[in-house]
Design goal:
By secondary structure, the protein is α/β, with parallel strands linked by helices. It has one domain: Rossmann fold (3-Layer(aba) Sandwich), CATH 3.40.50.1240. 29% of the residues lie in helices and 18% in strands. The strands form two sheets. It has a six-stranded mixed β-sheet with strand order 4-3-6-1-7-8. Strands 2-5 form a two-stranded antiparallel ribbon. Helix 2 crosses helix 3 and helix 4 packs across helix 5.
């Protein structure tokens, strides 16, 4: 059995929240990170030891890993895996969210500005992202690791759940994945299991 422990990164700086930031390397909110130290402590206590640790190339996942170390989880090297990065919105990255508000229902998702199959100019669709993330998860199941912690992004964690549960992209975009939440997936060599989604830990 391979156990995947998926953590969404820390909340980003308020200046970025009103924009579609995607793969832009936006800053985290230091104030919120300090205020939620108890949540990092809960993660540090809950996460398995030992475990392989994976982050993405974006600094918000790496800052989150350091916060978990500071809260008591043993410091260790991490692997950087681009396959678990957030959705690439191409030319739309940095666009204010409100500019998508008046789109026709067919052009958006009820809980997201963009439809699951839509490909932003120069970017990728959420459907494409599921394929990307799923292939990376499958590779990791072959490593012989028992526990794999992945600090990633909301979109990538939804994509991981879609891959594991064979959800369609529209369904997967309806999943709620909050910052600093824990989602757990198991793989037994043949089948996937969702153990938990969007756990909100606190000491």
């Amino acid at each position: 059995m391979v156990h995947f422990w998926l953590i969404r990164h820390a909340l980003v700086h308020p200046d970025a929240l009103n924009f579609l930031y995607g793969t832009n390397d936006v800053a985290i909110c230091d104030t919120t990170m300090t205020a939620e130290a108890h949540r990092y402590a809960a993660l540090a206590e809950r996460l398995p030891r030992p475990a392989r640790l994976i982050v993405t190339p974006l600094s918000r996942t790496q800052h989150t890993a350091r916060a978990i170390f500071a809260a008591g989880y043993p410091t260790q090297p991490w692997d950087v895996e681009p396959a678990f990065v957030e959705q690439n919105f191409g030319d739309w990255q940095g666009t204010p969210i409100h500019e998508f508000a008046n789109r026709a229902p067919a052009e958006r998702h009820p809980f997201w500005p963009i439809a699951a199959a839509e490909i932003p100019p120069g970017g990728e669709s959420f459907s494409d992202m599921i394929v990307r993330v799923g292939a990376a998860l499958n590779r990791l199941t072959l490593l012989g690791e028992k526990n794999i912690i992945i600090i990633s992004h909301g979109g990538a964690i939804r994509a991981a759940c879609a891959h594991a549960l064979q959800l369609n992209p529209h369904q997967a975009l309806s999943l709620s994945v909050e910052n600093i939440s824990l989602t757990r997936l198991d793989y037994n060599g043949c089948d996937w299991r969702l153990v938990s989604l969007n756990e909100q830990l606190s000491t």
